[in-house]
Specification:
Elements: E1 6-7, E2 10-11, H1 14-23, H2 28-36, H3 40-51, H4 55-68, E3 76-82, H5 88-101, E4 106-112, H6 125-128, H7 130-133, E5 138-144, H8 156-165, E6 170-174, E7 191-196, H9 209-214, E8 217-220, H10 228-242, E9 256-258, H11 267-284, H12 286-313, H13 315-329, H14 335-349
Parallel strand pairs: 3-6, 3-7, 4-5, 4-6, 7-8, 8-9
Antiparallel strand pairs: 1-2
Helix pairs in contact: 2-3, 2-4, 3-8, 13-14
C-alpha cells in the first residue's frame, strides 16, 4: 500500500494543488492561447491576474486585455439582481442550462459579498450551481465584491472581456442583493433583470425607484399554485408602478413575468424577452451607443484608480493622503474639502 503524499508532514490536499497552480507563471501568449482554446483553468488564471492588485500583475493584465480586445464584444451581457432570498443562484443555474440547450456558451460571474471586517468572501457559487458547473459549455467564476459600490467587483467588466474572448456569448452577472447602489450593474450590462418574490410586505416598498428606472425585465420568482393569486396581484402593482416611470428604451414596455426557477417554469419567457429586447436595441442603434458609454465610464473609473495609486506610491504624498483622510474621518473638515486639498497638493508637487 502506498503512503499518502505529504507536504511538510501534512497530507497533500486539493487546496495544495490550487496553491501550486496559482503559483505557476504563464506568459501572456500562453494565457491568450488558453483563453481562445477554451481552457477553463487558464481562463480562471487570466481572471485572477486581472483581479490582482500587484504592480507586476497589473502590467501583464493590461498587456493581456489589450491583445484580446479584437476577440471581445460578441456576447449578451445580462445583469441579474434581486432581494436576498429571491433565488438568484437557482434562477441563473437553470436559466444558464436553458441558454446552453439553445446553443449558447454561458459564463456566470457570481459576485460574492466580501466581509467588511476581514475582506474575505464565501466564494461558494460553484457549490450552489452544481448542475450548471458540470456543463461543458458553462464557466462559473465567483469573485469577491471587495466592498465595491454597486454590488459588482471592480474588475467585472474586464473579466467579461476575457469570457467573451473565450467564446462565451451569454454572460450572466449575479450581484450581491439589491439596493440603491446596486443599479450600477446596469453600467456594464446590456439588459437588467430584476427578481422579485412574494410576501415581503408592501410589494413596492422594497423596490427603490432607481431600480425601477433601470430595470428591463422583471421576473416574479417562486410562484406556486397556492400563491398564484397573490403573484398576479403583485404583477399588477408592479405594472401600475412602471406606468409612472419614463421608459428607458423607446418602444419597450417592461414585462413582468411569473414563474419558478426551481421548477423551470417561466424561464423560456424570460429567454424570449431578453432576445426581443436585444434585437430592439440593435435595431434602434442603442446597443452600440450604450456599450460606448459603458466603456467611457470604465475609462473614467480607471483614471481615478491609477491617479490614486500614483499618489499613494509617492512617499511624501502618502503621508499627506493619510493625514487628509484622517482629517476627513475625524470630521475635522468636510471630506470633499480634504480631498480637494490633497489633489491640489499632488498637482502642485508633481
Amino acid at each position: 500500500m502506498h503512503s499518502p503524499l505529504t507536504i511538510h508532514g501534512s497530507p497533500f490536499t486539493f487546496s495544495h494543488l490550487i496553491i501550486i497552480f496559482e503559483s505557476m507563471k504563464f506568459s501572456t501568449e500562453e494565457l491568450i492561447q488558453g483563453i481562445q482554446s477554451g481552457n477553463k483553468r487558464l481562463i480562471a488564471k487570466a481572471i485572477t491576474l486581472v483581479e490582482s492588485k500587484k504592480a507586476e500583475h497589473r502590467i501583464q493584465a493590461e498587456e493581456l486585455l489589450k491583445k484580446i480586445m479584437p476577440l471581445t464584444g460578441n456576447s449578451i451581457r445580462v445583469g441579474v439582481t434581486g432581494v436576498p432570498g429571491a433565488g438568484k443562484s437557482t434562477f441563473i443555474e437553470n436559466f444558464g442550462r436553458l441558454a446552453i440547450s439553445n446553443g449558447r456558451k454561458v459564463a456566470v460571474l457570481a459576485i460574492d459579498p466580501s466581509s467588511a471586517v476581514n475582506k474575505g468572501s464565501i466564494l461558494g457559487d460553484k457549490t450552489r450551481m452544481e448542475e450548471l458547473a458540470k456543463e461543458e459549455n458553462a464557466f462559473i467564476r465567483p469573485s469577491p465584491s471587495s466592498g465595491f459600490l454597486g454590488g459588482v467587483a471592480n474588475t467585472t467588466f474586464e473579466t467579461m472581456m476575457i469570457c467573451e474572448a473565450a467564446g462565451y456569448d451569454y454572460i450572466l452577472i449575479e450581484t450581491v442583493g439589491v439596493g440603491q447602489s446596486e443599479v450600477l450593474v446596469a453600467d456594464i450590462t446590456d439588459i437588467f433583470l430584476f427578481l422579485k418574490i412574494i410576501g415581503g410586505g408592501d410589494e413596492l416598498q422594497g423596490i427603490k425607484r432607481g431600480i425601477m428606472e433601470m430595470v428591463d425585465v422583471i421576473f416574479i420568482n417562486k410562484v406556486e399554485q397556492d400563491n398564484l393569486p397573490k403573484a398576479k396581484n403583485t404583477r399588477l402593482e408592479l405594472k401600475r408602478a412602471l406606468d409612472f416611470i419614463p421608459p428607458k428604451e423607446k418602444d419597450w414596455k417592461v414585462p413582468v413575468l411569473l414563474g419558478s426557477a426551481l421548477h423551470n417554469e417561466g424561464l423560456g419567457d424570460v429567454y424570449q424577452k431578453i432576445d426581443e429586447f436585444i434585437r430592439l436595441k440593435k435595431k434602434t442603434g442603442r446597443f452600440e451607443k450604450v456599450r460606448t458609454q459603458q466603456a467611457e465610464k470604465r475609462f473614467d473609473y480607471w483614471v481615478q484608480e491609477y491617479i490614486l495609486a500614483m499618489m499613494k506610491r509617492n512617499n511624501s504624498m502618502e503621508e499627506a493622503y493619510i493625514q487628509h483622510k484622517k482629517n476627513a474621518s475625524a470630521m475635522v473638515s468636510n471630506p470633499s474639502t480634504e480631498a480637494k486639498l490633497f489633489v491640489e497638493k499632488f498637482l502642485k508637487d508633481s
